[in-house]
User: Fold Imidazolonepropionase from Flagellimonas olearia.
Amino acid sequence: MNKPLLIGPFTQLLPMTGLPLKGALQDEQLPIIKNGGILVADGKILKVGVFDEMKSSDVDVHRIEGDHVCLPGFVDSHTHICFGGTRARDYAFRNAGKTYLEIAKAGGGIWDTVTQTRKASQEELVKDIISRSKRHLKNGVTTIEVKSGYGLSIDEELKMLRAIKQANETSNVTLVPTCLAAHMKPKDWNQDQEYLDVIINELFPIINTEDLAHRVDAFVEESAFSPEEIKPYFQKAKEMGFDITVHADQFTTGGSQVAVDFDAVSADHLEASTEKEIQLLAKSNTIATALPGASLGLGCAYTPARKILDAGGALSIASDHNPGSAPMGDLLTQASILGTFEKLSNTEVLAGITYRAAAALRLKDRGKLEAGAQADFVVFPTDNYQEITYHQGQLKPSMVWKNGINVCQ
Ligand code: NIG
Ligand code: FE
Assistant:
């Protein structure tokens, strides 16, 4: 039997433990272990502490030379990295002054990606998901949520969810699938039956049987589904045991109320949220997820992250990586930039892409470096954690460990 592996020493080790799920965080609260080490066996963390105190004849040692900062592998709690084609034309239109809704009406928008994704085979989608997730992994992201939502028919949604499942089986990254069959009303739907009724009665049971997802999402917005229209969809999803997450308050409010009413795990976007929605979320169990990549891609306001934290809310930060509103797909860059605009402490930014993001996916075994957690961690070549956000994503990891294996160096 192999001995446990002691990895280190790390100049600074940030376990992200002992911090609250909700509310503002100051950097003085951030636990830092100097010259830290992580003891790993069978892909899990056995112990975190001071490297020299953990050395013994019972452990093998993977020695790290030079200055390094180690923290939990990043969790990207909201992406759409299963898609076909590109929307570069939308981006150019938008920068020429057309709005998101005007572009959608002119044949661009989500429906354009639906058309392009339907043309791709399941194998092509698997290949694209793997190549996009490899890029995220290199940047330190070890867990990625991935939504369907560019299929918008039973068969096409299943193709996407099966592609995500297949990619997860061969990828080094953990992919967490979410059914987003209510991304918009499909333009080609035969009006004889209600689209959402078919999704509820036919798609949800197959997702359960094939174990394709444990989470259900919808876009609650004037251009997609109203709060009233979406209720039966979430009602049924909840009855069937799915976790609920909502694309909420992106352009108009209403979605966060739906999220709180259904005790959703997260309400994501929130760029249009006002004081009322901020208070509502802060008092709830629903995690608020900021998507700065969508603000950067669309050229619009950021989620009021500072206000959400000051009101006592829990804040996750995710990339929303998708071909339309958030084509960049660089979580650390986006989270760092959100920090500058919203005046977030380093601890708030790092919490938003580690343990608070893991909580938005209901994953208790990651986002923190502690005994029993997955041995997923990212290492940066510096002696000071402040350098990480300061370089706004340009300081790249020197190593990324996933399940106790050094997968990128
Ligand atoms: O999260 N807002 C809705 N859905 C995506 C955009 C998808 C797209 O434009 O293709 C989002 O921003
Ligand atoms: Fe999204």
About this structure: Residues 80, 110, 113, 219, 247, 250, 294, 320, 322-326 surround N-(iminomethyl)-L-glutamic acid (ligand 1) (CB under 6 Å).
